[in-house]
Amino acid sequence: MRTVVEKLEESRIREVANEGLGRPDVLKFWFGESDEVTPGFIREAAMASLQAGETFYAHNLGLPELRRAIAAYTHGLHPAQNTDQWFDRVAVTSGGVNGLMLASQALVDAGDEVVVVTPAWPNLVAQPQIMGARVVTVPLRVLDDGPRAGAWALDLGALLAAITPATRLLVVNAPNNPTGWTLSTQEQAAVLAHCRGTGTWILSDEVYERLYYADDTTNGAAPSFLDVARPDDRLIVAHSFSKSFLMTGWRLGWLVLPAALTHAVGKLIEFNTSCAPVFVQRAATVALQRGDEVTPALVAHLKTCRDTLVPLLRELPGVMLAEPLGGMYAFFRLEGQGDCLELAKRLVREAGLGLAPGSAFGPEAAGWLRWCFASRDPQRLLLGVERLRAWLAAQR
Ligand code: PMP
Predict the structure, then answer these.
(1) pLDDT in tens, 261-286
(2) pTM beyond 0.70
(3) How far is the centre of ligand 1, averaged over its atoms, from the C-alpha of 97 (Å)?
(4) Around Cβ 144, how many Cβ atoms within 10 Å?
(5) Residue that terminates a domain, selected from 225, 256, 290
(6) ∠ CA(360), CA(152), CA(15), 5° rounding?
(7) 271, 290, 309: which is the final residue of a domain?
(8) Digit-coded pLDDT (tens) for 23-62
(9) How far is the CA of 240 from the centre of ligand 1 (A)?
(10) pLDDT at 83
(11) CATH code of the domain covering residue 280
């Protein structure tokens, strides 16, 4: 086995989840998904496709209808991008995670330097590592005081200083899992200008772009690198149907690429998955066409969940957190409880509460916990807070 594979860290979130095996009473907020089933009309489109006998291989880059629907959707959200090449800039992938891996496969050679902004979803660090890259992390820092105390923020100067002509790729995820941190348009423009100078590719993971709660949005999306980049910039944007359309189990996503790279990514898709299943692509096409029936209500509901959970967490002794501006996670520090992996396991065993340990997302987040607030019934969140409150009280 390759040493790099042997050394890959196993998921600490899974480690905590295993602690809860066979315990149906545990309230599970550890994984990044809603407990809401995919809307009926999306499921029906998949069933209709199967009924019609669409059980065959398809084009590597995705069904033309779906690529056109993605192009129209993306252009609608990011009109600043030039349109005539849109279709050629879209590759359909088997989930966001596969799209991100394809990007690493297309760009990263063994020994290359890759900069990743952390805390981050662990896959973003592991994927370039699998390609043999040397990963350099640039941690966000926590604001200690002021109205946004407990929020994670980018030190733009530190990030730009870390990106040199030796940096092949920058990987950044905003709105961020787990911190809820988002990038501003000005920051994106500064990062892009810098990366143009150093010849560095940007892999921007924007799977949470629609789960954005700040007021400065005109089109229902977080700031995107697509708002500031040219079509031929060294930029790949990764997207997913998982979050905005409640389709985690369907495994479908897409990449927005410079047109010159699309053919190469199509070749890589052939060797990875060959294509995404046609019935899943049919369902996704309908999801995009009728997205207005899903995403706005989902985002409004998630905002309610956030606004239910965050103030209650803030009241607990030793808890520090800021309201997340995007994503679907409350990320909080719990003072004086020691190692968060052990803490998360204890919370499962002793409180029946399933949270993800901050250290899963980077060493700088040790002592933090991630709570996915995408809950169909906000009452579950209240129940979870009660369990945490009672557990904390019992520690004193
Ligand atoms: N990026 C981030 C930051 C994520 O949190 C996730 C899912 N947890 C993904 C990408 C991938 O999502 P999927 O593979 O389900 O499309």
Answers:
(1) 999 999 999 999 999 999 999 999 99
(2) yes
(3) 6
(4) 8
(5) 290
(6) 10
(7) 290
(8) 999 999 999 999 999 999 999 999 999 999 999 999 999 9
(9) 7
(10) 63
(11) 3.40.640.10
